[in-house]
Amino acid sequence: MTRNVVFDNRRLYAVDDYTSPEELYDNLIEIVKRYHPSDDISLIEKAYGTACDAHKDQMRKSGEPYIIHPLCTATILADLEMDKETIVAGLLHDVVEDTIMTKDDLAREFGDDVADLVDGVTKLNKLKYRGNRAEFQADNLRKMFLAMARDIRVIIIKLADRLHNMRTLQYQTPEKQHEIARETLDIYSPIAQRLGISRIKIELDDLSLKYLKPDIYQELKTQIAQRKSEREDFVAGIVREVSDKLDEARIDASVNGRVKHFFSIYKKMVNQHKNLDQIYDLFAVRIIVNDVKDCYAALGMIHEMYKPIPGRFKDYIAMPKANNYQSLHTSLIGPNGTPFEIQIRTYDMHRTAEFGIAAHWKYKETSDGKHPDENEEEKLSWLRQILEWQKNLSDNEEFMSLLKSDLNLFSDFVYAFTPSGDVKNLPSGSTPVDFAYAIHSAVGNRMVGARVNGKLVNIDYVIQNGDRVEIITSQNSHGPSRDWLKIVRSTQARTKINQWFKNELKEDNIVRGKAQFNDYCKTHAIKLEDIMKPEYQQAVLDKYRFRDFDAVYAAIGHGGLKEGQIVNRMVERYEMDHRRNITDEEALANMDESSKKNAFHKNEGGIIVKGITDVSVHFSKCCNPLPGDEIVGFVTRGRGISIHRTDCINIMNMLETDRVRLIEAEWEKGSENAQKEYLADINIFANNRNGLLVDVSRVFTEENIGIIGVNCRVNKQNVATIYVSFNIHSTMELDSIIQKLRSIQGVLDIERNTQ
């Protein structure tokens, strides 16, 4: 019998307490030798030498040698007991991106397997994106998912890389900390959950909370520490009582107790609208036994010892989660009426729960041990779904929105049965329509009704755990209804329905989209003959990867694209072509007297323009830069210098002939703390519901920020886009507002405007 009580949320991988890279490397080799059947470490030794040479002149923001990062990444992979090729790729994962080494160099030195793994985690060339982070992020994720489909080890390396970056996030700027933490919580933590790697997911969650909500994180840390001894006594008492009872029954088991990790506690507080003092089930005791029979025997014994809380028992052994997690969960009332949770599982189940798909990476000397077996591939059906619908999504904004939604939906799920007894895992709140599309797209498209547990139900019936669902189909069905998009919960169903309308109603969509396009131009006094030139159409086709302009009209017609964003892009190209190409000197010489008189008022906006002192400065309305943004100046005719964000769409799409008029600019030191206000405008994307606009307005009211303008529209998928314009002091203040807005129920994404 093993007894252990864990009272804090320590890191799971002790790789940061080092005195030198050599010590870290020795630690890595020691871990590998512990689980690997072969003593041959020559490939790892060679990779370490190569990485040291490649990164020898590079330093991290922390001031430490860059080689520390790949060493820590490789050590995390070793803790997951990955094969040697994965360890080698972890050591080399940054050499193609950050040094002169190429994929071909790696293939020659380490083989195609390692080279492909490194290439899979290597980001695209950032220079071609000219500061457009959203496009850069989306295309990188597309590349990564394709690489994952070929070899799932790609994402395991990426998760290890992200975990160490999160551990050292304190060396980044506050804006970068928030950006990386948000991406981690939206993308990488859910991926770790889908793969069942809870040891990584838990730490990613806690570190994300630390930077996204630092006040809440520190408050939780302080409050939990204040009552540490009381909690220690409580958990130790439960562990002792349970261990003694299992000993009496001669059930060999390991029993340990812990306080739940910070992010889990925070979610309980938010979901239950309670503070920490009102959350009582902060404790979990885990029992690990040898076989399934002992799991149920231990459960019966526990229910004799403590009173179970009704409705809080879950059997994930009989009904595993989508990521193959298995365990018995039961909530109980302990001494003095304090609730706590007990989890019961076998040692194999525990390994799967901790390491997920990595737990099944049994190393073999032959090459067939390098990939999951066929059963493991079946567990990656969600990845195949993402790959399927990403092929049909040319718009990166829509891709990112659906990806975040799909990854996070399965944080809570239900299971239901087909009439033949097959189990379907669905997001909580799913309907028979979701169930139909989970079976097959053809079943969903021909669906006319449903029976649940033998009784006819409405199609908006919310499926419950254990329901037996029968889908009624008809060959005479005319296909799905657009109203279904308002009730489905799964990304798979939503994508399949939209795909049907794209394919079946393409001609109607083209006609509808063209009418919307022309109406927009007419409303905004834009001449069609000015913008409908082949070169302007081609710019749109290249941007959204369409074959022809009819496909653009079809996308507008079914709601996948906004007519305004297409027209505005073409207008921008038209205006750029019709600007006079002049030099900086000519522009300055042509400034009117009014601009020259105001030349020395530039610092009122907190802007310093390199090399020019007698010129007026004004902020561009197309992107509304704020202190803290990266900025650039543009020499105009007669109006001084206009200041843009570097990610402004007008700057990114500027012709090379106009780029000679760009000039370096920066914020005056201390402008972020100045009292001057600047115009900001954002787009909020959210699932439409009653009270949404009221909740958005409340955030601005509570922060004492006046709204200058607001506009709202809802598309056919019942997704609301709320445009809000307001005055603010800096990007730091804006980030704080955006974070509060993200916590509103139903909010999918928020972005700053750059028109």
Describe the structure.
This protein has 755 residues and is an alpha+beta fold. The chain has 6 domains: 2-220, Hypothetical protein af1432 (Orthogonal Bundle), CATH 1.10.3210; 223-358, Beta Polymerase, domain 2 (2-Layer Sandwich); 381-503, Ubiquitin-like (UB roll) (Roll), CATH 3.10.20; 505-577, no CATH class; 602-666, no CATH class; 678-752, Alpha-Beta Plaits (2-Layer Sandwich). The chain is 48% helix and 16% strand. It contains 32 helices and 20 strands. A 6-stranded mixed sheet has the order 1-2-3-6-5-4. The termini are far apart. Residues 3-15, 125-131, 362-379 and 580-604 have low confidence and may be disordered.
Q: How are the SSEs placed, and which strands pair?
A:
Elements: E1 2-6, H1 21-35, H2 42-54, H3 68-79, H4 84-92, H5 95-98, H6 103-110, H7 112-121, H8 133-150, H9 153-167, H10 174-194, H11 198-212, H12 214-226, H13 228-248, E2 253-259, H14 262-272, E3 283-289, H15 292-305, E4 307-315, E5 328-333, E6 339-346, H16 347-355, H17 374-378, H18 381-391, H19 396-409, E7 413-417, E8 423-427, H20 432-439, H21 441-445, E9 447-452, E10 455-457, E11 469-473, H22 491-504, H23 506-523, H24 528-531, H25 534-544, H26 549-557, H27 563-577, H28 584-589, H29 593-597, E12 607-609, E13 617-619, E14 631-635, E15 641-645, H30 649-652, E16 662-667, E17 678-687, H31 692-702, E18 707-714, E19 719-728, H32 731-742, E20 747-752
Parallel strand pairs: 1-2, 3-6, 13-15
Antiparallel strand pairs: 2-3, 4-5, 5-6, 7-8, 9-10, 9-11, 12-16, 14-15, 14-16, 17-19, 17-20, 18-19
Helix pairs in contact: 1-3, 2-4, 3-4, 3-9, 4-7, 6-7, 7-8, 7-9, 8-18, 8-19, 9-10, 9-11, 10-11, 10-19, 11-12, 20-22, 23-26, 23-27, 25-27
